[in-house]
Amino acid sequence: MLQKSYDDGIKPLVANQINVEEALQRAAVPLRGFMQKNVREKDLKLFMDLSGEAPPATPDEMSLRILVPAVHDLRTEARLRNRLPLVLPFLIIDLVVASVLMSMGMMMLPPVVVSLPFKLIFFVLVDGWSLVAGSLVQSYGG
Q1: Is 107 left (phi over 0), alpha (psi -120 to 50) or beta?
Q2: DSSP H or E stretch at residue 69
Q3: Which of 40, 55, 57, 84 is deepest in the core (most CB within 10 A)?
Q4: CA distances from 111 to 49, 61, 63 (A)
């Protein structure tokens, strides 16, 4: 999608074959298809009502002014489901460290100071960057 957008709009613009307005129109076509596929009807209707524009005859004529804000929250439930396994261990580490510090009578020592190295070690051991990047790509469904 991004490669097609670049090839159709940006590349000819850089080569001075088309003007900026035409480049934006050409580059928006693949992006518009992606946005239309990933927008909820409820959000789309809300932003159409807020814009005051007449409904388009075909979905391809939908204004980017309506589509862009309507796509703001792509598949929230998928993002939450994919990130919860990563956040939960951090929460448990915080609770355990805070409990141990309190039981030792070290109330003035912030638990974050002790738990941060454990969180970093955990993140590196489970290959956290790979999990975060993989979850992000999966949440967009494509």
Answers
A1: alpha
A2: helix 64-70
A3: 40
A4: 49, 55, 50
Strand extents, DSSP E, 39-81 = none
Place 104 in a pLDDT band, splitting at 50, 70 and 90. very high
Question: How far apart (Å, rounded) are the C-alpha atoms in residues 122 and 124?
Answer: 5
Give the three-state DSSP class for 104: coil
Rg over alpha carbons for the chain, rounded to the nearest Å, is: 23
pTM, entire model:
0.46
**DSSP H or E segment with residue 9:** none
pLDDT at residue number 64: 80
Q: How far apart are CA 29 and CA 4, in angstroms?
A: 9
Are 63 and 31 in contact by the 8 Å Cβ rule? The answer is no
Average pLDDT value for residue range 60-85: 69
Provide the 3-class DSSP secondary structure of residue 74.
coil
